[in-house]
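Morning!

This is the sequence you dropped in the shared folder:
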Amino acid sequence: MNYDAIIFDCDGVLINSEPIAVAILAADLLELGLRISEEEAHHRFTGWLTAQIAETVSAETGVPTPENWVRRHNASVREAVAASVEPISGIHDVLDALDWAGVPWGVASQSGLEYLERALGRVGIWQRAAGRVASSQIVARPKPAPDVYLKAMELVGVPGHRSIVVEDSPTGVRAGVAAGARVIGYAMDREPHVLTDAGASHTVGAMADLHGLLGLSLPEPA
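The structure's back. Tokens below.
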């Protein structure tokens, strides 16, 4: 693959936050009249903004969203993730290989900056990505619009057609494609065709698989 930069989604790609988040989401959706399993919540709503989820579910169930539901839900997820999240297995090796090769990389996330600083900071990625983290909070439109990826590309100084995006949700894949990038789908816990159907050119099931696909080598031992 020819590329000059890599842009990563955050949740489910850099940090293993989604099991934490979907457990809280499935529980909180009961308040909006929807009983759903954690697996269903993951496959249906991964990559969505909380406000979008609330609006959609309330329209389906006819249960109005309490005024503070989105704020309470986001606070619960933020606190739980900040307290216990772990990095995706193998992601630090990928970042080490990119740094060693001199390839710039950044982050483009639906999540807010406070959450990103706490969650990525816990696993040592926020410190590595200083100045190269874009949040949907700071752009006009969330994914699947390309805005947050275009912002991340601006931060790393590489245009979309020279960038590769790594994403784990159809919503995010569509955003990366719309930004002009080639997208690799990270399909650790979903069927790969869900991501290729959304526009991913390749999929991987583990971060270790990215090394060969991107032509990366691990740094030589000191």
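Headline: The radius of gyration is 17 Å.

More detail when I'm at my desk.
O.
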